[in-house]
Amino acid sequence: MLQGSTPGQGQQRRTGPAPRARAAADLPLLAAIAVAAALWIALYLHLQAFAGWLAYSVLHLSPAAHLGMAVDFFAADVPKILLLLTGIITAITVLRSYFPPERVKAALTGRGQFVGTVLAALLGTVTPFCSCSAVPLFIGFVEAGLPLAVTFAFLISSPVVNEVALVLLAGLFGWQIALLYVGLGLFVAVAAGNVIGRLHLERDVEDYVYRIKVGAAEVAAPTFRQRVGEALAYERDLLRRILPWVLAGIALGALIHGYAPTDLVVRYAGRHNPFAVPVAVLIAVPLYSNAAGTIPIVQALIGKGLPLGTALAFMMAVTAISVPELIILRRVMRPRLIAVFVGVVAVSIVLIGYVFNAVV
Question: Cα separation of 59 and 78, whole Å?
Answer without folding.
Answer: 17
